[in-house]
Design goal:
By secondary structure, this protein is mainly beta. It has 2 domains: 99 residues, Virus Head Decoration Protein, Chain: A; 128 residues, Nucleoside Triphosphate Pyrophosphohydrolase, CATH 3.90.79. The chain is built from 2 helices and 16 strands. The strands form 5 sheets. It has a 5-stranded antiparallel beta sheet, with no helix packed on it. Strand 11 and strand 12 form a beta hairpin. The longest helix is centred in the C-terminal third of the chain and has 11 residues.
């Protein structure tokens, strides 16, 4: 006897409501996943709920949702939003395409999860990997895969610069920093949205780089940076300007 026998495609599962329900209703299934009821069902009538695919759903008013961001279903408002507010809210999927504040709907990839991959050979950067990370080596490259943990869920990857940004050290620093081996840097930058609390930020690391921190606007950041890095920061802010408010 076979150990496994095919039953049905994995893009939908059996669903039997306890009360009459309309097709297109967003529900949370017994396993915690989001589902979209396929057709109208009577109480106790066996039907199906979709668990994969791209769906247009009602969006919470007055918020901006960015392509690739996490999306949750607000159970009380019956609308999609960017975070879980109550214990009855549940994860819906990832945003497909930006949604403006005035938009009333948004597209979602149902039950998809963010997966952020950094290739240290092609996207070198100095960063702190939050949450659990798996490091693999393939063909001479190193890949860092971030997975969802309590810490990782405090940042959402929004965008990255598509081109390299470079700067040279000023003459007075040449030969004095980086053991004299380098005259500048070539960088790619990543934009994250911080979803935690100020108390989650800890700069007292084993090898601290900063003595204090504060929130500033993007333009204030450019004005405050050392002069030889100012052009870099101007390019970064210009690259991410569409995402900043």
């Amino acid at each position: 006897m076979a150990e496994a026998n095919y039953k049905q495609a994995g893009d939908q599962v059996d669903y039997t409501p306890v009360a009459a329900i309309l097709g297109g209703t967003v529900v949370q299934l017994a396993d915690g996943r989001a589902g979209v009821v396929k057709v109208d069902l009577e109480a106790g009538q066996k039907g199906a709920a979709a668990v994969h695919g791209i769906y247009k759903v009602t969006k919470t008013a007055g918020i901006v949702l960015l392509d690739g961001g996490k999306l949750f279903w607000d159970h009380s408002a019956n609308a999609a939003t960017f975070k879980q507010v109550s214990d009855r809210d549940f994860y819906l999927g990832t945003v497909q395409g930006d949604a403006a504040s005035a938009d009333t709907t948004v597209f979602v990839a149902l039950n998809e999860r963010q997966r952020c991959v950094f290739d240290a050979a092609y996207d070198p950067c100095t960063t702190v990997i939050v949450g659990a990370a798996t490091i693999t080596r393939r063909g001479g490259t190193h890949k860092f895969n971030l997975v969802s943990t309590n810490e990782a869920e405090k940042v959402d990857l929004i965008a990255k610069t598509h081109h390299w940004i470079t700067y040279d050290l000023p003459p007075e620093l040449l030969g004095k920093v980086w053991n004299g081996k380098y005259r500048g840097q070539r960088q790619k930058w990543f934009l994250f949205r911080f979803t935690g609390q100020d108390s989650d930020i800890d700069i007292a690391t084993a090898h601290p780089e900063f003595s204090r921190w504060k929130w500033v606007t993007a333009d204030e950041m450019v004005d405050a940076i050392v002069p030889f890095k100012r052009e870099v920061y101007e390019q970064v802010v210009d690259a991410f300007r569409a995402y900043l408010s």
